[in-house]
Structure formats: structure tokens, C-alpha cells
Amino acid sequence: MSWFLALPIAIPFVAAVAAFLARGYRVGRWISIVGALAHLLSAILLISVVSAEGILAGQMGTWPAPFGITLVADNLSAGMVGVTAVIGLAVAIYALADIDERLENLGYHALYNVLIAGVTGAFLTGDLFNLYVWFEVMLIASFGLLVLGGDREQIDGGIKYVALNLVSTVMFLTGVGLLYGQTGTLNMADLALATENVDQGLLTVIAMMFMVAFGVKAAVFPLFFWLPASYHTPAFSVSAVFAGLLTKVGVYSLIRMFTLVFDHDLGFTQPVLLWVAALTMITGVLGAASQTDFRKILSFHIVSQIGYMVLGLALLTPLAVAGAVFYLIHHIIVKANLFLIAGVADRIGGSTCLSKVGGLYASAPLLAALFLVPAFSLAGFPPLSGFWAKYLLVKASLDVGAWVIAGVALVVGLLTIYSMTKIWGAVFWTPHPEGREPSLKQLDPALRRAYLVSIGGLAGLTVLIGLVPQPLLTFSEVAAEQLLDPGAYIDAVLGEVR
Amino acid sequence: MNSVILRVGTRFLVGLLLIFSIHMLLRGHNEPGGGFIGGLIGAIGFILYAIACGTEDARAALRTAPERIAMAGLGVALLAGVLAAFFGDPLFTGQWYFIGDQKSGDYIPISTVLVFDIGVYLVVFGSILSLVFALEEAI
């Protein structure tokens, strides 16, 4: 049974090793794609097993639960692994067109697969120190990807990214140390039981350290500065996978820790999270409104959207948490897709600066249509996936009488439309400043196919979730149930011990 | 650095360091040591060589790119973990094989744990060397 949990982590590592040893040959990029397909398959298997049999736990190396490393998949973890695999495959296909041979020879495919493995590992682990290790795996791979190619601008963004992430890592590790000193265990399920017997005041202090550490990773207010400073510099495939997945690992960790371990003083932690959520939404969307670069606007929107997910965690009602899970999955697909589209607009239009491109609506109508799907979904237009995600969270806040935050969520949605129309107007409607007519037809057919398959596939998924939201909604509701009542999670991990 | 003393000294030290690193790797199973520290010590040998004779010579002595060694090491470590699948155990469960008679205590145990440690050795060795060589060449 534990192999259902181990395979999604092992497959990208195997692909990374194979792709690195085969770099310089054409076969390297296909290894990436085959690996992504196998990863998706293993993720689907995991989701089906978890849906059928409930929370799944496996002890790596056959060391029993609180001592060894446990991998656990509940609905949240399995869902996140699934959406990681989807993005992994889409970006691997997109990379066929986006990543040139120079980056391939520098080891792009190996780093990319290690990154996917790191993200998957972080979602599946049931051990706090192991989570730290996966963060490091992810971080090392992302440092490499961020500066791959070595442009001046990339190094500049990379340094900011490294510096702030190191601060967060130190904070995380200090928190882990303190928590271990207090409880004597780092297995998350065991921690959930052990925290009852420690000084509750000190536990709150440790909880805040984790909030800051994961807050930096998740790019919440006021810790988000590194994100818009670095996400617009690397290759488009890289920034798409960063935008889709990396900050969500932070959000996932927040949700996991603050439902499972740090649920002792909700009167203190939840209002803090609520303020953070509101300010993150507002600063993100206002930051986006002031930008004039395609990718920078999108980067600030990541920040703003993170606020919605934190909002779901802050309210901590079943509907709100289900909304947060739904939002996570919807957002990863949509946001990665928008970055991929920015890449195509840059390729055929010549720039991502809004004042230097244009005319795509007339000459590349298909791309314009494909942009509208994720853009409207991000803003929350029915019947796309974003509408349901926002609806769930707004309804959850109205249910508990949190009128102000519901209002903030709605206004931020409106302002999101403003930025999206700004991109739409500049990139698609106004004529190209140099009088060019950028068209998809000028691309090599193989490149065009890679672009359209990846972007079209993700857009199709967005429409599908929008039209048939029920399966994902039920899945999220079960996830929320499992998160709010950690008994089943603890039993699955510590079954034999308790 | 162009120093005769260092170059001559290095010639002796490199071999010693490499042997010591293997010793640390093998000793690590039940005593302090292991793949990580072994890989670091092994890397020091080649770093010393690179400082004394230049990275070009050190790369030539290594025969293959250090990045390749690191990645191959990752593959070896993975193999050690995945081997457990063939015995129906969870990932990274140690698989043991005993040469000789177990009852009389006269035997040599061989395990996937050692294979994993060799993988770690190669990963550390390769990645440290690729970092240091790149830094040396950039200066």
C-alpha cells in the first residue's frame, strides 16, 4: 500500500536522473514528458485509492510511526499531488517549445523534475523535519531554475529570492527545534497529541514562528516582496511552475499545521490569519494595478489570490476550508496557465511589457480566447472555476457574519477584473506599437502544437471544473472534514501505536 | 597558486584523503562516519588538487564531470530505495544479504543501506566539486 504514496515522489527523481544523464541529446526532453505522464498516472492512482479507502499512511523503511518518516495522503494531500502532476505535465509539454538547447544542456529537465519531486514530497510527508527537507529540495531546484542561463536580471531576482527564503528557512528550522524541545516528537500526527501537554503560551509563540516561516513561502502580506521581484525574470516554463506550485506549498503547510497541530488557541491565531488574509488580498491587487508588465501583474495577483486561501483557513468552518481547498486547486491551474500564455504573447509579440506588444486579438484570436478563460476564471466570472471558488469563500464568510471580509473579497475580485482588462486592452486590443501582426502561424508547427496542447489542456480543465464543479466540491468537502477533525488522520498514522 | 611545496605535498595527500574517505564511508554503518562525511573528505582531496595544480588538471584527473557523478549518485541512492519493492516492502526498507554462516557469527552482511550510503557519497562528492570548480574558475 505504501507504494501508492512513494511512487509520486520516486518517479520524478528517476526522471531527473535519467534526464540529466541524457542531457545534450534530444531524448532528454522526452524523458521529462514520459516522467510527467507516469507521475500523473501515479497521482491518479493515489487519488482513487484515497477516495475509496480514506486516509492512507505508509511508513518508509518500515520504521514505525513516530520514529520513522511517515507519508500520509488525505484528500488535501492527494488532491494537491494530482494538480501538481497536471501542471507538471502541462509545463513539460510547454517546455518543448519554450526551453532552448542552451538551457537544456545546463540541466533544465533534471532541475525541473527535482522541483516536482520536492513539491510532491512536501504535500505527502507526515513528518515536520521531512517537510523541511522537501522545502530544501524544492528551494535548491528553484534557485537553479531561477538563475539558469545567468542573465543579469535573473541573478538580481535570484538574490532577493534566495535571501528572503533563507530567512524563512531559518525561522522554520528554529520553530522545528523549539517544537521538538517541547514535545519530543516531529511526527505531525504525534505532535497533534503531544501539544496538549506543553505550555500553551509557548506553543502559541512557536505557532507564530511557523506562521511567519510559511507566510514567507506563501507570500502573504507583509512578507511577499520577494515574489514580484523574482518571478518575472526566468524562462516562462519556470515562472509558470513557480507561480502555480511554490507559493501553494506554503499555503498547504499553513493549512496542515494550523488545523492539525496549532489548533489550541484559535482565539489568537485565527484573527491574525484573518487580518493577514484581508491585507494580502488588498495589497496584492493594488500592487497589480500599478504594474505595466504582463508577468509582474500576474505575480502580484498570485499574492492577492493567496489571501483568499488564507481567508478559508482563517474562518475555519467546514465550508470555508472546503472553499480554500477548492481555491487552491483552481488557482494552481489558472495561474500557471496565465504565465504560459504570457510566454506565447512574448514569443510572437516580442515583449511582456504592456506598452510594447499589442494586436494579438486581431492576428491570434485563438490565443485571445485561451487567455480569456483563465483571466475570467481568476476574476471569478461564472461559469468558470474561479466563480465557484470565490462563491464558496464569500458564502462561508457571510455564514459566520464576517461582512467586512466578504466585502473585501468581492471588491478584490472586481479589481482583479480591472487588471485583467488592462492586460486584455494592451496586449490584445490595441494595435502593435511597431505595426507588426504577431500571429501563431509564424511559429514552427511543432512549437505551436506544444503551446496549444498545454495551454488548451489547462483552459479545458478550468472550463470543465466550472461546468461540473460537483466532483471537486465533494472532494474538497471531504478534505475539509478530514482537516477539521484530525482524529482519522492521527489514527491512520499512529494506528498500531495508539 | 604556484607553489612547489603544495604541489608535492598534494601528490601524497590526495591519495591519503581518498582512502580515508572510503574508510569513513564503510565505517559509517555502525560507527561515526558515513556517506556524507566520506563524500566531503573525498571532495577535499580533489579541491586540494585543484588549488595546487589548477581546476583543468583536477577535472582531467576526475575524468568525468562532477555534476554527472552527483546525479549518478542520486540514481544509486534511489536504486537502493526502490530495490525494496522487489521484496514487497515499503520504499527504503533495508534489504540484507549475508555471506557466510550466520549462526557461528562468521559472516559478512551486505545491505541496501550501504548502497544508499554510496549514493550519498557520490552526491556529496559530485555536488561539492561542481560548486568549488565553478567558483575556482570564476575567480
From TrEMBL, chain A:
Which GO terms label this protein's molecular function in UniProt?
NADH dehydrogenase (ubiquinone) activity
Q: Which UniProt keywords apply?
A: Cell membrane, Membrane, Transmembrane, Transmembrane helix
How is the protein disposed in the membrane?
Multi-pass membrane protein
- Primary site of residence: membrane
Q: Which GO terms describe its biological process?
A: ATP synthesis coupled electron transport
> What is one GO cellular-component annotation here?
plasma membrane
Start and end residues of each NADH:quinone oxidoreductase/Mrp antiporter transmembrane domain:
126-415
Family matches, as InterPro entries:
CPA3_Na-H_Antiporter_D, NADH_UbQ_OxRdtase, ND/Mrp_TM
User: Has the keyword Transmembrane helix been applied to this entry?
Assistant: yes
Q: Which domain of life is it from?
A: Bacteria
Q: Which Pfam families match?
A: Proton_antipo_M (PF00361)
Q: Where in the cell is it found?
A: Cell membrane; Membrane
Decide whether keyword Zinc-finger is in the record. Answer: no
Regions that span the bilayer:
6-25, 37-56, 76-97, 106-125, 131-149, 161-181, 201-227, 234-252, 272-290, 297-319, 325-345, 357-381, 401-429, 450-468
Q: What does this protein do?
A: NDH-1 shuttles electrons from NADH, via FMN and iron-sulfur (Fe-S) centers, to quinones in the respiratory chain. The immediate electron acceptor for the enzyme in this species is believed to be ubiquinone. Couples the redox reaction to proton translocation (for every two electrons transferred, four hydrogen ions are translocated across the cytoplasmic membrane), and thus conserves the redox energy in a proton gradient.
Q: Family per UniProt?
A: Belongs to the CPA3 antiporters (TC 2.A.63) subunit D family.
Q: Know the name of this protein?
A: Na+/H+ antiporter subunit D
Question: Source species, please?
Answer: Histidinibacterium lentulum
UniProtKB/TrEMBL annotation, chain B:
Q: Does the keyword Membrane apply?
A: yes
Query: What sequence ranges are listed for the domain Na+/H+ antiporter MnhB subunit-related protein?
Result: 5-129
InterPro entries referenced in this protein's UniProt entry, alphabetically: CPA3_antiporter_subunitB, MnhB
Cited Pfam families? MnhB
> Its membrane topology, per UniProt?
Multi-pass membrane protein
Provide the protein name. Na+/H+ antiporter subunit B
**Keyword presence, Oxidoreductase:** no
Q: Which UniProt keywords apply?
A: Cell membrane, Membrane, Transmembrane, Transmembrane helix
Q: What is the lineage of its organism?
A: Bacteria, Pseudomonadati, Pseudomonadota, Alphaproteobacteria, Rhodobacterales
Main localisation: membrane
Which sequence ranges are marked TM in the entry? 12-29, 35-56, 68-87, 107-135
Q: Which domain of life is it from?
A: Bacteria
Q: Which family does it belong to?
A: Belongs to the CPA3 antiporters (TC 2.A.63) subunit B family.
Give compartment(s): Cell membrane
Q: What GO terms fall under cellular component here?
A: plasma membrane
